[in-house]
Amino acid sequence: MEDFRLVQPRCVPPLEEGFRPAVLANRQFRQELQDAGGGLPLALALERADGSVSRFETQVFSDEHTRSPANLAYAERLVKFLLWQRGGWKVVVGGPRRIGDYIQHCYSPEGPRAFDYHFMGEDVYERTFRVVSCSATDAPRQHEREQSLGRHLDGYRIGFDLGASDVKVSAVVEGQAIFSREVVWEPRRQADPQYHYAQIMALLKEAAAHMPRVDAIGGSAAGVYVNNRMMIASLFRGVPKDRFHEARNLFLRMRDELGAPLEIVNDGEVTALAGSMSLEDNGVLGIALGSSEAGGYVTGQGNITGWLNELAFAPIDYSPQAPSDEWSGDRGVGAQYLSQQCVFRLAPRAGIRIPEDITDAEKLEFVQERLEAGHAGATLIWQSMGYYMGYAIAHYADFYEELKHVLILGRCTSGCGGPLILQGAQEVLTSEFPELAGRINIQLPDEKSRRVGQSIAAASLPEIRGREV
């Protein structure tokens, strides 16, 4: 990154003066190109298993230009973001060969992004991950596919949302929640898939007891799901590889036992769906600040794409001193700034010592209690998160072209925390990105929706076919 110029933000997070927003570095790079009279085209095309292709176009310096070394860091961080936003088992780098060679090295079994190589290839798309170089004109054209998601409110439904520290479930009748419950759990420490099955099933049956019958079940959880089969999920990282096949069909077993259609999708998608339904508008990015960061997007047409939207692993801070993610090993990714992981990370700097012998949910509550009591250090944590959020939204806007609304929710937004995050984010957009402040609406749902809104929206996922209700 030494050749890539980082920019100090106008709104400096009070507990992290070294924060260097990705959006400012990228804009600085593009401004340098413009000042130099333009550059060469760079097209990044990502192919997914169903044949759909996402294409992102930008420019870079020619190999002869003195600033060309900065191309490598610029392009690599773009590839990293696009992989976790949109997904792909193959990346085509259309542009200078030096950039293609560098990306191929980084995203190889021996490269610094070996985690991404294995995750995107073997774990998600069950293929060998590849990086291919070509000219910008020869890079594949965009070929996206959209599909409708949820919005079915008829009948007797169960909705659930699986987080890393709690499970939320709702019984929904004709679009109205008649029962909701939230239970603390710690799935990441559990090696036996039967633990997850028993915990979830107990709650589903409890919700079912409040209705005369169950017509449909919808769920959301972090991870990648294909045809209701779990391909990869951080919630189940405690399950050994040789037993993961037992977890893969977990939700199909639940469907069969309860005798009702079941749909489960990434929790970020349901976050966006909840926002779109409550706002009665589209072009919605939902960001849930929970045990990790969940993201989802409803397009301008009200649909979803085949994108991953795993923004927890997409970089938003380019500082070489940025914290490392414990799972992927990369620095500056969203989960370290927009989740309870951020609260735990900043607590010592804020003069707060969190007890070690309690659950993560209890740790967050411990810090939130101090926030509600007016603890100055706790306030600085959420003010920092607000600035992180503002720069993250500006960064996301470069990749979600139809973005009109950002809905912020999740456990970290409860109580005083949500307004502090919202205030900080709006301050960033107003001071640094006035063009975005004028067209992007950032908002919080009400308290009840923040805590159980995803499980209610999840209930709308399945379509009830061939049955009178």
Structure characterization notes:
β1 and β2 form a beta hairpin. The protein has 469 residues and is of the alpha/beta class. The model has no long low-confidence stretch (mean pLDDT 92). α2 (70-86) crosses α3 (97-106), α8 (267-279) crosses α14 and α11 crosses α12. It has a 5-stranded mixed beta sheet. The protein has a 4-stranded mixed beta sheet with strand order 2-1-3-4, covered by helices on one side. It starts with 21 loop residues before the first helix and ends in a 10-residue tail after the last helix. Helix content is 36%, strand content 20%. The protein has 3 domains: 39-144, no CATH class; 147-264, ATPase, nucleotide binding domain (Nucleotidyltransferase, domain 5), CATH 3.30.420.40; 270-454, Nucleotidyltransferase, domain 5 (2-Layer Sandwich), CATH 3.30.420.40. It is globular and about 70 Å long.
Topology readout:
Elements (H helix, E strand, L loop, with lengths): L21 H14 L4 E8 L5 E8 L9 H17 L3 E5 L2 H10 L7 H11 L5 E5 L11 E2 L8 E7 L3 E8 L2 E9 L8 H16 L7 E6 L2 E3 L2 E4 L11 H5 L1 H9 L3 E5 H13 L4 E6 L3 E6 L5 E2 L34 H7 L13 H13 L3 H22 L7 E5 L7 H16 L1 H4 L3 E3 L3 H13 L10
Helix pairs in contact: 2-3, 5-7, 8-14, 10-11, 11-12
